[in-house]
Design brief:
By secondary structure, the chain is mostly helical. It has seven helices and no strands. The longest helix is centred in the C-terminal third of the chain and has 36 residues. The radius of gyration is 25 Å and the shape is flat.
Length: 179
């Protein structure tokens, strides 16, 4: 009976989702952010390497007007937003831009090859990762988290200062009214 209980406990532990943040889950979150951010940079560089070819082969095919303009938009979104995502700085806006480019890429793949997994695979995985960071933010080990902590502390300090000032003025008005 003890073995069965132990196996049940281990199975439950293996299947239970993590709702409470832990350092281990935050490390995994950080690794995912770094990997997808760094890997996406190369896509932007590839686009800039042959912007006319990309515009002709991808943007024009899906019917967007001004294919060169939109090719530059995609390339610079990937070149600017991907390092921001990797650093965890302005993560949600960066993830929103990258998620949008992956949605357009997925649309292109569906238009060209239908629902073919080999064509959709990479852009779908990237889109899911970017959606995760768009919804959840950068995580604990990020520039966003650091800035958020500093801003929260500054707001608390300002509120504490205002509260002390109000208390002091209230005490002063009580002293004056007693005389």
């Amino acid at each position: 009976m003890a073995l069965t209980q132990r196996l049940s406990g281990w199975t439950a532990l293996a299947l239970q989702p993590t709702f409470a943040p832990s350092y281990l889950s935050q490390i995994g979150w950080t690794v995912l952010r770094l990997v997808v951010g760094i890997m996406m940079i190369h896509n932007g560089l590839d686009k800039l390497g042959n912007i006319e070819g990309f515009a002709e082969a991808y943007v024009k095919v899906i019917g967007l007007p001004f294919p060169i303009f939109f090719s530059y938009c995609a390339a610079y979104t990937e070149l600017i937003a991907a390092p921001l995502l990797a650093l965890g700085f302005l993560t949600r806006p960066a993830a929103a831009g990258l998620f949008g480019t992956m949605l357009v890429a997925m649309y292109h793949h569906v238009l060209v090859a239908g629902f073919s997994i080999p064509y959709l695979e990479l852009s779908s995985i990237y889109a899911a990762c970017f959606l995760f960071f768009l919804i959840n933010g950068a995580g604990l080990f990020s520039v966003d988290s650091l800035l958020s902590g500093w801003l929260s502390a500054a707001v608390r300090d300002t509120q504490d200062s205002q509260l002390r000032s109000l208390e002091k003025s209230y005490q002063t008005s009580e002293v004056v009214s007693e005389k």
